[in-house]
UniProtKB/TrEMBL annotation:
Subcellular location: Cytoplasm
Lineage of producing organism: Bacteria, Bacillati, Bacillota, Bacilli, Lactobacillales
EC number(s) reported in the record: 2.4.2.17
Residue span(s) of domain ATP phosphoribosyltransferase catalytic: 57-206
Gene3D superfamilies: Periplasmic binding protein-like II
Enzyme class, first EC level, given as a word: transferase
Reported function: Catalyzes the condensation of ATP and 5-phosphoribose 1-diphosphate to form N'-(5'-phosphoribosyl)-ATP (PR-ATP). Has a crucial role in the pathway because the rate of histidine biosynthesis seems to be controlled primarily by regulation of HisG enzymatic activity.
Catalytic function, reaction form: 1-(5-phospho-beta-D-ribosyl)-ATP + diphosphate = 5-phospho-alpha-D-ribose 1-diphosphate + ATP
Protein name, per record: ATP phosphoribosyltransferase
Domain characteristics, as noted in the entry: Lacks the C-terminal regulatory region which is replaced by HisZ.
SUPFAM superfamilies: Periplasmic binding protein-like II (SSF53850)
Similarity field: Belongs to the ATP phosphoribosyltransferase family. Short subfamily.
Assigned keywords, A-Z: Amino-acid biosynthesis, ATP-binding, Cytoplasm, Glycosyltransferase, Histidine biosynthesis, Nucleotide-binding, Transferase
């Protein structure tokens, strides 16, 4: 019997850039993805994998609906979209932080009801609920840092990786909410149907992630 073709939904952009080397170290042929141009779906010519390139929130939708077997996506998106699929591996890349940020004029203790801009309304609501604060949340699709700069919002809840966007836009961090990293998630049914193939890929990737982490520690 031929091996099943596993459908892997990979988040386009930063996640893709950081995860392709890991997949390659694990022996997965990613040459077609590397030379993708504007294509969005690729069969591996040498292995039983199909890659789907999608935006993070859509990766969770592909997984939930069974249109992908494996998803590679940030934990920020998994939490925000309340993913119910199996998270099997922290890939150790895409490490960032959720922060509350704004201009220097922002006063987090001010008694007025705050307006918060974010791509993550659920995470933002949970954070302010924990603080016992009722805030107005404005959903923004990108370049969230614009919100406090333009007066659209008093502050933002967003992820920061290098801190460059915050710095270059003269914002400052007022609080750290939770860490984020890239995860490998599996559709529940796919795990039942393709257990051997999925665990074999996960084991290979886990070995790469551990080896990279050990290398980092030894270079400290
Ligand atoms: C994310 C995030 C910040 C930026 C932070 O946006 O929303 O804007 O990265 O990264 P840094 O700390 O390394 O500067 P993304 O690049 O995904 O684009 P977007 O703003 O269009 O959503």
């Amino acid at each position: 019997m031929s091996e099943p073709r596993l459908k892997i939904a990979l988040t386009k952009g930063r996640v893709e850039t950081q995860v392709l080397p890991l997949l390659e170290q694990a022996g997965v042929d990613c040459s077609l993805v590397r030379h993708k141009q504007r294509r969005l779906i690729f069969d591996s010519t040498t292995q039983p994998y199909e890659f789907i390139l999608a935006k993070g929130p859509d990766v969770t939708t592909f997984l939930e609906r069974g249109a992908a077997d494996i998803g590679i996506v940030g934990s920020d998106i998994l939490v925000e979209h309340q993913s119910t699929q199996y998270e099997l591996l922290d890939l150790g890349v895409g490490q960032c932080q959720f922060v509350l940020a704004s201009t220097a004029a922002f006063d987090p203790q001010a008694p007025q009801r705050k307006i918060i801009g974010t791509k993550y309304p659920l995470i933002t609501k949970r954070y302010f609920d924990r603080l016992g604060q009722d805030v107005e949340i404005i959903k923004i699709e990108g370049s969230v840092e614009l919100a406090p700069l333009t007066g659209l919002a008093d502050a933002i809840v967003d992820i920061t990786e290098t801190g460059t966007t915050i710095r270059e836009n003269h914002l400052q961090i007022y609080d750290y909410l939770q860490p984020v990293s890239t995860r490998l998630v599996v559709n529940r049914l796919a795990l039942k149907q393709h257990q051997t193939a999925i665990f074999s890929l996960v084991d290979q990737l886990a070995a790469v992630v551990n080896a990279n982490a050990e290398k980092e520690v030894s270079q400290l």
